[in-house]
Amino acid sequence: MERVYNFSAGPSVMPEAVLKTAAADMLNYKGSGMSVMEMSHRSKVFIEIADNTAATLREIMNIPANYKILFLQGGASLQFAMIPMNLLTAKKKIDLLDTGHWSAAALKEAKRFAAVNVVASSKDTTYDHIPALDPSKFDPDADYFHITSNNTIYGTRMTDNWPNVGNVPLVCDMSSNILSEVYDISKFGLIYAGAQKNMGPAGLTVVIIREDLLERTPEDIPTMMKYTTHVAADSMYNTPPTYGIYLAGLVFQWIKDLGGVAAVQKMNEEKAQILYDAIDNSAMFKGTVAKKDRSLMNIPFITGSEELDNKFVKEAEKAGMVNLKGYRTVGGMRASMYNALPIEGAKALVDFMKKFEVENK
Amino acid sequence: MERVYNFSAGPSVMPEAVLKTAAADMLNYKGSGMSVMEMSHRSKVFIEIADNTAATLREIMNIPANYKILFLQGGASLQFAMIPMNLLTAKKKIDLLDTGHWSAAALKEAKRFAAVNVVASSKDTTYDHIPALDPSKFDPDADYFHITSNNTIYGTRMTDNWPNVGNVPLVCDMSSNILSEVYDISKFGLIYAGAQKNMGPAGLTVVIIREDLLERTPEDIPTMMKYTTHVAADSMYNTPPTYGIYLAGLVFQWIKDLGGVAAVQKMNEEKAQILYDAIDNSAMFKGTVAKKDRSLMNIPFITGSEELDNKFVKEAEKAGMVNLKGYRTVGGMRASMYNALPIEGAKALVDFMKKFEVENK
User: Fold this and answer.
1) What is the pLDDT of residues B199-212, one digit of tens each?
2) The complex's ipTM?
3) Are B57 and B252 in contact (CB under 8 A)?
4) Is pTM beyond 0.90 here?
5) Are B39 and A11 in contact (CB < 8 Å)?
């Protein structure tokens, strides 16, 4: 059997070229006589891999010198606790924009530590849009302002409509669209993302933090929960997820070789347009979110009939297009088209949708 | 260049057969059309992988039914905090046996949370033995008793000399010798281990916990730090380190196919004996620890001359035996010979030692 088009929301498709390199390197990385996963994290050969991974990420995301890049573990879910534990001051106040499942999860965890002011929410309409922001509801005294730049489950995104937070640090969960578009990193105080969508295998978490925020880390939290611990040790306080760092490095280099994030963004826009056009021109398929807020990464669509949705997912799978079932709160289908999904995947899906529509009129 | 004999203390050598399977599976796992690292952790195919990994571990370690197996992240270092956060009661008292670098690290972190009674320590003699235990120094009222079963840096181990702790749960850091010998799991309340020595790649942490201890987890700690969170979700509260779980599963199966942990223990005893005999019969090389406490996994030895030690490490590397440099506090050499190091590696090292001794008399 050949490789499928994998529309999984995460963990998700990786660049085939990266997987081929990983397979070729598996028993003997560049004449080292061992696999990357067998290397001491303190060895010269691995430190070079880790340094290159960080340097390439800094280059392709254009991360300013006053930001640190950390390779951590535990996913966004652990960050939901680490962020308040590190960034809260005596004020203990957080502003948060509630745009979906993961915003709500961040909110729930943040409430353990602080008073959270939900500046806006689209929960009442099943998170089908990014709510308009009323800056008068922002707390200028908040310790930080938390947003989720892309909502994996609901298929909405923020792009140039970042809230104008003044001096309050903007903290962004970029798990599902990091590296998919060009961002101005200087607008953010802290960016975090699980690797398993656009960067590499699950088990690696990237945190990008503006240096001045490190002064906030209190002494009395667990050593492993302190950003300062990991900054001081260059992400090697303890053994990092070495193989994930190596694979992320290959993915970052793959992006660089494609022409960088701007080039990848163009490809993503093209892929998304193909699918959104098919949805908008169909009598059978409908999108579920406000057009202005449509995600480039996760595209939910429905037929309106659960039976037809199920039939679609089943037949698409037989045709080599997998993981198209939508999340239960939205229903229908969801096509996640991360950086590594080739444009042929989007085209094949659209061809299949057209055929399915004709056959099931 | 061929594969080397890798004596790294961790991350460390993996079974070559496992790496070959991983390379062969890389682009298309068993006809799924994708790599294991591209699979949704909620997919049927991945859940089968995770379930098999846990079931095989339960089988080869003979883990009783009243123990839960968790696949976590963050390494032993995160456990140093999670264990007290979950297991302390209102008493807030811990007994701890200080046998090396990692015991001391566990002690340092535990002190953030509780009064820690160090029942014995071999720190004064650079941790060159497992200290004798005086049960009158044990606190029968402690919330748990913490030990480190193998001391990676110093090369000592406990094996059948577990402290007689009565009803106090015995908590054991088994990072560097899990699966190297047969243990009676029922003696322990909690066992934890980073994967990167005897189980798989770095970034996966295995916790084996007796069910009754789960009742101690307090409500007010971060969600991701609660064992109960991960037990309730079968280690899938958030995306687990899927590729690490897959590789660990291959390693567990490899152990099972070799005849189980008892068979592997025999091989480890044989490998260690080869090296210890060479040390004991040499006029140049000396061991650094008490014979009764010698580790099967990590074997430090010295010549007494720093110059000669360095020469040895350098020439061994040229001969294809790498990562033999000892830890700075011990000096000299350290040969880590985990399960996956073939016996040929031990033999090659000993041959090289004999040759080196003749040439450098």
Assistant:
1) 999 999 999 999 99
2) 0.98
3) yes
4) yes
5) yes
